[in-house]
From TrEMBL:
The active site is at E146, H233. This is M4 family metallopeptidase. Belongs to the peptidase M4 family. The chain holds residues 269 to 600 of 802 of the full protein. It comes from Streptomyces roseirectus.
């Protein structure tokens, strides 16, 4: 009958997943009736407007291959749904602005466009098809990263330059990892890598590494006085490193089959508290204590305040937060 349905889709990266759809007349639309009506559009290689809403006759979407136009739509619609569910189920957050309103997603932006982006102006996310239009930037971590830019804008509103810009970028990478772990897809289990599915470097390596961000050749591992002059996608490194240390602890470790080896600036060890506890602390810091001008020192005090609220001042978890900041050369 008309209205809310749950279809099935096969994405390029997410595997076969459930998808919220809506039956209108005899056609299913990629409109997620269970999540405030989030809509997924096919830009058809255009770069403006909304193109066409994805529609389908049988509510079975995509085939896992980039040659099928629906495949990218499956991955981005699922990414938006998973991220919506994560914020709602873990934090009680009702949408990006906590106002119950859905954003929308646009796939197939431009030609061989190698990026994805969030815009507050349209309250929407947009995804390129990547090199050769065959490596779309539509993985779960990329979708969660972009959607989290909307959450950051609606909360701390960290200015997108200087140290606050690095913290803004790190916030998107942090919740990208948290969503991946929470969703635990067989096709894309949780990791502390960013963009490991999209082959953006052409050699299968990820875009960013959280255990030791300098593995990408550009990101910084630790805070230093000139960090605010670094591109925000590289000055995010120390905060990503903080989050890894807090989640998993220092040293060598394998998680879901991926090997990490996280050093500390001060040479002292950090004991991990688990990714979802670390994410809870970052979320409370972001939404309660950080402001548009928060820098790394301010992020330290914000997360310590959040940890005190959630776990108790000077609790083992609070002390792990302090140790993880010392591990990236913030505080002592
Ligand atoms: N994909 C990039 C990001 O989310 C787009 C940008 O540079 N803002 O950071
Ligand atoms: Zn970003």
């Amino acid at each position: 009958e008309e209205g809310v349905h749950t279809g099935t889709g096969t994405g390029q990266y997410n595997g076969t997943v459930p998808l919220g759809s809506t039956l209108s007349g005899s056609t299913y639309q990629l409109v997620d009736g269970e999540r405030a009506g989030h809509r997924t559009y096919d830009l058809g290689q255009g770069t403006s407007g909304t193109g066409t809403l994805f529609t389908d006759a049988d509510d079975v979407w995509g085939n896992g291959l980039p040659s099928n136009r629906q495949t990218a739509g499956v991955d981005v619609a699922f990414g938006a749904a998973a991220t919506w569910d994560y914020y709602k189920e873990v934090f009680g957050r009702n949408g990006i602005r906590n106002d119950g309103v859905a954003a929308y997603s646009r796939a197939h932006y431009g030609n061989s466009y190698v990026n994805a982006f969030w815009q507050d102006s349209c309250f929407c996310m947009t995804y390129g098809d990547g090199s050769g239009n065959a490596n779309p930037l539509t993985s779960l971590d990329v979708a969660a990263h972009e959607m989290t830019h909307g959450v950051t804008a609606a909360t701390a509103n960290l200015t997108y330059s200087g140290e606050s810009g690095g913290l803004n970028e790190a916030t998107s990478d942090i919740f990208a990892a948290a969503v991946e772990f929470y969703e635990n897809l067989p096709a894309d289990p949780g990791d502390y890598l960013v963009g490991e599915k999209i082959n953006i470097n052409g050699d299968g390596t990820p875009l960013r590494y959280m255990d030791k961000p300098s593995r990408d050749g550009s990101s910084h591992d630790n805070w230093s006085p000139g960090l605010g002059n670094v591109d925000v996608h590289y000055s995010s490194g120390p905060a990503n490193h903080f989050f890894y240390l807090l989640s998993e602890g220092s040293g060598a470790k394998t998680v879901n089959g991926v090997a990490y080896d996280s050093p500390t600036y001060d040479g002292k060890s950090v004991t991990g508290i688990g990714v979802q506890n670390a994410a809870k602390i970052w979320y409370r810091a972001l939404t309660t204590y950080m402001t548009s001008s928060t820098n790394y020192a301010g992020a330290r005090t914000a997360t310590l305040s959040a940890a005190a609220d959630l776990f108790g001042a000077y609790s083992p978890t609070y002390l792990a937060v302090a140790d993880a900041w010392a591990g990236i050369n913030v505080g002592s």
